[in-house]
Amino acid sequence: MDVAALDRPLPPRSAGPALPAWLVAELRSDHAGETGAVMIYRGILAISRDPAVRDFAERHKATEQGHLDLLDALLPPADRSRLLPLWRVAGWLTGALPALFGPRAVFATIDAVESFVDHHYRAQIDRLDAERILPEIRALLEHCRLEEVHHRDEAREAGEGPRYSAALRLWGRIVGAGSAAAVAAAKRI
User: Fold this and answer.
1) 179 CB-contact burial (10 Å; exposed 0-12 / middle 13-18 / buried 19+)
2) Which member of 65, 74, 163, 188 has the greatest number of CB atoms within 10 A?
């Protein structure tokens, strides 16, 4: 699939061969993560009054919503995480809490989240490559991964990532650990 074709939603996957169970679990976690990502930006927008942060959040919320729309088209409702209400609340708090502390905390949070997401998507892409299956899903995941890397890099530059304080570095590790725990839960529930 041409990555440019991702501008159009994928048809629902009701027809065709069933997806491998490992991939359904991964896509469930991706869907939950993109749901949380939309809510992170909503949380930021609910709290922050900084024009640069708000512009950043509005632009990236739209991108995350696009990812969520793609996954909505790909993953039938029955295969989605049953914990979506929890992921919405957790996402909103992950955006709102750092917004209380200012732009650098927001950007450090996005840096941490998107660093995790880059590795998460990369692992799925690598497995699809190794198994030589489902190139259209691989293209979708790579498209999303590249946009997430762009979010990370923009946040890192805006937040002066190499100079994060010890407290923000600790917060970033907490956010990364929380993301890993959420993925593990979303794959199962």
Assistant:
1) buried
2) 74
User: For 103-113, what is the mean pLDDT?
Assistant: 96
Distance CA 107, CA 138 (A): 28
Structure tokens at 169: 């570095």
Let me know: does 140 contact 10? Beta carbons within 8 Å.
yes
pTM above 0.85, yes or no: yes
Name the residue among 137, 186, 154 with its Cα closest to residue 63. 154
The upper half-sphere exposure of residue 46, i.e. CA atoms within 13 Å in the direction of its Cβ, equals 14
Average pLDDT over residues 154-158: 94
Q: How confident is the model at residue 17 (pLDDT cuts 50, 70, 90)?
A: low
Q: Go through 41-61 and write b for each residue having 16 or more CB atoms within 10 A of its CB, e for each that does not.
A: bbbbbebbeeeebeebbeebb
Axis-axis angle for helices 21-47, 135-158 (nearest 10): 30
What is the CA 2 to chain-centroid distance, rounded? 22
